[in-house]
Write a structure and sequence with these properties.
- The chain is mainly alpha-helical.
- It has six helices and two strands; from the N terminus they run H-E-H-H-H-E-H-H.
- The chain is 41% helix and 4% strand.
- The chain has a two-stranded parallel sheet.
- Helix 5 packs antiparallel against helix 6.
- The longest helix is centred in the last third of the chain and has 18 residues.
- The relative contact order is 0.13.
């Protein structure tokens, strides 16, 4: 099982791999809920000098027509809940033909947790140590301990 998002382009280019899609697993206490949504945000800031023009650009970008084109070509889940757009999901990708695409829409994303102001730097530090683990330069326990120590040092330096 590969539980991830936005990999359909990669999977469709992998010849000879026999794969399909299933509903994301969920916990008994939260049925039909999967991990946090992979979200990219586009917004108009309060400081913008061209709010009206920016809003018009967003209207075009998020129109039904453009969302339909995007979901057909990229195989990315449309942000709009319009069932007609969801039916177009991955339609321009021949590798997705006969795949169980409706499985993708059976669950809803969990609410995003509140992030610590140290989350970004903590992730950066963890990734650095994880790469050392992957390169066989550290065992798992050492990697976790070193990452924790460095994160704690960073947090103390910010207080």
């Amino acid at each position: 099982m590969l539980a991830s998002v936005n990999l359909l382009d990669l999977l469709s280019k992998t010849e000879g791999l026999n794969w399909d899609i299933a509903q994301f697993p969920s916990y008994k206490e939260s049925p039909d809920v999967f991990g946090m949504y992979d979200l990219h945000v586009i917004a108009v800031t309060s400081m913008s000098r061209h709010k009206q023009a920016a809003m018009k650009a967003l209207e075009v970008l998020f129109s039904d027509d453009n969302q339909k084109i995007s979901t057909r070509k990229t195989g990315r889940i449309p942000l709009l809940t319009n069932p007609d757009i969801r039916k177009e999901f991955g339609a321009d990708n021949p590798a997705l033909k006969d795949k169980k695409l409706n499985s993708i829409f059976k669950s809803k994303p969990a609410s995003a947790p509140p992030f610590s102001k140290y989350q970004s730097k903590g992730s950066e530090i963890t990734l650095k140590h994880y790469k050392e683990f992957l390169a066989d330069n550290k065992d798992l326990n050492t990697m976790l301990r070193d990452a924790e120590e460095e994160i704690n040092q960073f947090i103390k330096s910010q207080q």
